[in-house]
Design a protein that fits this description.
Length: 171
């Protein structure tokens, strides 16, 4: 069975003026991500939204500005994407979608063996989640047109690392 992970497609990352806006280039992935979600739904695949969610005193804010504070609009999925009944939302408080979440349990319950990945930021949350997927022996496809980063060099490095080191397919 296949599934789709939609990582951090949240207002604080993708809306101009968002607390940790990934830049205008990042917005270009939205139509592709929307299409991948539509394809997954039509194929009867599970769509899982991985959503950054922090408390105000989170230690991550020593490295990054405050963002995706639980209960704020910035922590919401962007309006261009529609979450349907049956989709799964998983809140995370660190880079990997697996850290202290039920992601592995959800994937196993739905007998997911292959995971497509889209979202932001390629060099942080996408790469760390993909690394953890591969460490658990899931087949992974990272859609190049569906990931973005505020740092073009880090974006390219992450794509290469996910493919060459983790063994993910980057299409």
């Amino acid at each position: 069975m296949k599934g789709l992970l939609v990582i951090d497609m949240l207002k604080d990352f993708l809306a101009e003026g968002g607390a940790l806006f990934c830049g205008k280039e990042s917005r270009k992935i939205i139509p592709f991500v929307r299409e991948k979600i539509k394809e997954a739904h039509q194929a009867g695949q599970l769509v899982i939204y991985i959503c950054d969610s922090h408390q105000g005193d989170d230690l991550e804010f020593k490295l990054f500005p405050k963002h995706c504070l639980e209960g704020t609009d910035g922590a919401n999925i962007i309006k261009e994407l529609e979450v349907l009944d049956g989709d799964v939302l998983i809140k995370k408080r660190r880079y990997s979608g697996f850290f202290e979440t039920d992601l592995d349990k959800v994937l196993k319950e739905h007998q997911i063996e292959e995971v497509g990945v889209v979202g932001v930021c390629t060099s942080i949350c996408v790469m760390d989640t993909v690394g953890d997927l591969r460490s658990r022996d899931y087949k992974v496809i990272v859609y190049r047109e569906g990931v973005a980063d505020f740092d073009p060099e880090a974006h390219q490095f992450a794509l290469e690392r996910m493919e060459k080191i983790y063994g993910a397919k980057v299409l």
